[in-house]
Amino acid sequence: MDNLKYDDPLLLELIELEAERIENTIDLVASETHMPKSILEEMGSVLNHKTIEGYPGKRFHAGCEYVDIIEKLAIDRMKDLLQAEHANVQPHSGSSANIAVYFSVLDVGARILSMSLSHGGHLTHGHLTSMTSRCFNFQHYNVDLQTELINYDAVARAADQFKPEMIVAGASSYPRLIDYEKMYQIAKSAGAYLFVDMAHIAGLVAAKLIPGPVPFADFVSFTTYKTMMGGRGGVILCKKEYADAVDKAVFPGTQGTTAVSNIAGKATIAKLAGQTGFINVQQKTLDNAKLLAKEFLKKGYRLVGGGTDTHQIIIDVTSKGLSGARAERILESTGIITNRNYIPGDTEKKASGLRLGTGPISVRGVDRNHVVQIADIIDNALMNPGNQEVSDRLRKDVFEICRQFPVYNSSVPE
Ligand code: DSN
């Protein structure tokens, strides 16, 4: 970053500090990962110069001969990778993608049935604080409070009574698999569209390690910066018959010009996702999540949903007398980065959960022995809050793991 040194040394210093923070902490945030360097190169490239509106071959500015090829590549590769009939790669984020899906086929005020936030849903699934709840009439389904799993019969009953025009499946905080075929049957019986938000699990689906929603859903959205490893942004997949409506809802419906640099990242990750390096990272992500879950269960922690089938583990930290926020802060001071989360039964005043994801440690290539050690460190830290001696010792252990498994090693797909 030779030029930044002259233009804005303070920013260079902050970026270097952030790079150091990333190297020297263990990232267990379920919605983060470490991107391949090639994606970072694309994102900082000359592609940022170009203003584009419209779609390849139908633009509103000249000079699009190369960026048209880039966007077309991203579309075709995403379609091939996920066996989708249509892909739109322009959404700035998962939220923009979700908003565009709603507006593609629904009128303002339409009825939408989705999972509530504290049971795992996302803000854009109609939470009171989200503009989505001001534009559409949402009703929410919950997980079963005993099993903390989706009760498909209860969803079917809710659909029968509420008569939604769209049903949303998919979650930000749900560690188990969702039965998309069942959700499809419920949606079809209700005469509703099925929309699946697979933001968190897209990388696992792309690697074909867990079932994907594409054959069943009318619309699928995902972000490219979580398990998918493709940099910031969102993607919408849909059946061919909705392609035009989705494209119009993205541009000009809800976005203007978009970031070609991020579209390039999406194109590259869709290529890398077919290769062994990516698939191995996703397999490790699943294996590490199962291993961490096993370790926490052994130590007496209560896990939401009883365990995991994905990259996520959600610990009910009240089972150890802590709140999610307190647990998050204790771990941050030992160099372990997580985030607090609502769990089923929370009132949204206080989060009782701590959500962990194994994407980033799997990219770093952390081996099984050290995953077990990470569970020990977390347990020790949570059981000894305020004990500076323990905290300092654990911080050193975290440093040592980080030193042994640097972010940019051979596990990152090249
Ligand atoms: N939806 C937020 C999360 O799951 O952390 C950001 O992607």
Q: Can you walk me through this structure?
A:
The strands form four sheets. A seven-stranded mixed beta sheet has the order 4-10-9-8-7-5-6, sandwiched between helices. Strands 11-12-15-14 form a four-stranded antiparallel beta sheet. Strands 1-13 form a two-stranded parallel sheet. It is built from 16 helices and 15 strands. It folds into two domains: 232 residues, Type I PLP-dependent aspartate aminotransferase-like (Major domain) (Aspartate Aminotransferase, domain 2); 129 residues, Aspartate Aminotransferase, domain 1. 45% of the residues lie in helices and 13% in strands. With 414 residues, the chain is α/β, with parallel strands linked by helices. It starts with a helix and ends in a 10-residue tail after the last helix. The longest helix is centred in the last third of the chain and has 23 residues. Helix 6 links the parallel strand 5 and strand 6. The site of D-serine (DSN) has 3 residues, from loops.
Topology diagram in text:
Blueprint: H1 2-7, H2 9-24, E1 26-27, H3 37-43, E2 54-55, E3 58-59, H4 65-82, E4 86-88, H5 94-105, E5 111-115, H6 131-135, E6 137-141, H7 152-162, E7 166-169, H8 180-190, E8 193-197, H9 202-206, E9 219-223, E10 234-238, H10 243-254, H11 260-272, H12 276-298, E11 302-303, E12 312-316, H13 324-333, E13 336-337, E14 339-341, E15 353-357, H14 359-363, H15 368-383, H16 388-404
The protein binds D-serine.
